[in-house]
């Protein structure tokens, strides 16, 4: 008899498409808990520029293992155990996991996310709830659904030094010549990722996809893509950026710079590196804000490219459609 895999939902799509609201609606409908699949909301103190969902004005319940009200002894320990903190962020009464896991000066890898999310999925299932991945970081979603084994490529100091002497355009051009798929989805304004990607391509001689091996799936996953017309998406992004500035993004970046400097991993994100350039007097604030909007448009387009390559994703334009598709999924 074939073993039935546990069912999970994944809500994906570009930034500002409505994923958060859709995830909350599905969680309320199916007694679910959300795991944020976003490479930026993992950073503590980076709230405004990452558009973290605002927490309810109530204290969340304690979660630990499979029992409400229990706390794992390791939850207060330093190191990897600190990633498994017992308290979710409650948003409209829905538990949200995967937020505020590390400091901005720490690296958080895809394999770490996979480990964290697998643990949370197990706990959520043991509580009799539905795990719902919500986010736009495609590699995080792939890590859970497709189970890639991330082979480590050790840094090459001499090669790294050579690559650091190249311009961003030179790095991107060589990446495109070696791995067009990677070039179409990589954050081409994140120099650290460009250098690392080309280092892997040169060292292994393989594309980033070819060097991955995939294990058998361990979840029965329904992927729902949330979309809206491009013109509306860009207008909503621009409005969100204006709201971020109004809420105090500049002050948030100033405080983070004082604590962690300008070059930490968290500061490479859109919304932060542009404001850092303003503080470094490379451009006026108005120009920095315009660049946040432009870079966010560019990022949204890359996200769409990534997710549209996956024919398993069912695209919706409303919460109603998402609920209907999910209803059918759980009935089968």
**Mean pLDDT score, rounded?**
88
Question: What fraction strand?
Answer: 5-15%
How many extended strands?
A: 11
Number of helices: 12
Radius of gyration: 20 Å
Morphology call: globular
Lateral strand order in the biggest sheet = 5-6-2-7-1-10-11
Helix content: 40-55%
Separation of the first and last Cα atoms: 17 Å
Task: Report the major sheet.
Answer: 7 strands, mixed
Quaternary organization: single chain
Unreliably modeled segments: 65-78
Short description:
The chain is α/β, with parallel strands linked by helices and 332 residues long.
Features:
alpha/beta, 11 strands, globular
Protein described:
- The strands form 3 sheets. A 7-stranded mixed sheet has the order 5-6-2-7-1-10-11, with helices on both faces.
- The protein is an alpha/beta fold and 332 residues long.
- Residues 65-78 have low confidence and may be disordered.
- It is built from 12 helices and 11 strands.
- 34% of the residues are buried.
- A hairpin with a 2-residue loop joins strand 5 and strand 6 (94-97).
- The longest helix is centred in the C-terminal third of the chain and has 24 residues, at 285-308.
Topology:
Blueprint: E1 7-12, H1 19-30, E2 32-36, E3 63-64, E4 67-68, E5 89-91, E6 94-97, H2 110-126, E7 130-134, H3 138-145, E8 148-149, H4 157-164, H5 168-178, H6 180-185, H7 191-204, E9 213-214, E10 220-226, H8 230-247, H9 249-260, H10 273-279, H11 285-308, E11 314-316, H12 319-331
Helix pairs in contact: 1-12, 2-3, 4-7, 5-7, 8-11, 10-11
């Amino acid at each position: 008899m074939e073993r039935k895999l546990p069912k999970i939902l994944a809500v994906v799509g570009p930034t500002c498409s409505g994923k958060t609201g859709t995830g909350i609606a599905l969680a309320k409908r199916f007694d679910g808990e959300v795991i944020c699949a976003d490479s930026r909301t993992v950073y503590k103190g980076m709230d405004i520029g990452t558009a973290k969902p605002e927490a309810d004005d109530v204290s969340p319940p304690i979660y630990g293992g499979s029992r409400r009200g229990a706390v794992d002894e390791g939850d207060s320990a330093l190191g990897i155990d600190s990633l498994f903190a017992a308290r979710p962020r409650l948003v409209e009464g829905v538990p949200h996991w995967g937020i505020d896991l590390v400091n901005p000066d720490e690296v958080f890898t895809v394999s770490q996310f996979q480990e964290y999310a697998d643990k949370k999925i197990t706990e959520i299932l043991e509580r009799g709830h539905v795990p719902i991945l919500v986010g736009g970081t495609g590699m995080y979603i792939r890590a859970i659904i497709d189970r890639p084994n991330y082979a480590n490529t050790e840094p090459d100091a001499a090669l790294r030094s050579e690559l650091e002497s190249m311009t961003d355009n030179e790095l991107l051009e060589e990446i495109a010549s070696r791995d067009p798929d990677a070039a179409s989805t990589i954050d081409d304004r994140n120099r650290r990722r460009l250098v690392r990607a080309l280092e892997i391509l040169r060292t292994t001689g393989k594309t980033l996809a070819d060097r991955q091996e995939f294990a058998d799936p361990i979840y029965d996953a329904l992927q729902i893509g949330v979309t809206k017309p491009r013109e509306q998406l860009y207008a909503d992004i621009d409005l969100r950026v204006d709201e971020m500035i109004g809420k105090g993004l500049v002050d948030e970046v100033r405080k983070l710079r004082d604590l962690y400097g300008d070059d930490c991993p968290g500061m490479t994100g859109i919304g932060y590196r542009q404001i850092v350039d303003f503080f470094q007097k490379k451009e006026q604030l108005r120009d920095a804000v315009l660049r946040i909007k432009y870079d966010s448009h560019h990022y949204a387009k890359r996200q769409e490219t990534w997710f549209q390559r996956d024919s398993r994703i069912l695209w919706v334009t409303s919460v109603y459609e998402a609920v209907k598709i999910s209803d059918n999924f759980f009935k089968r």
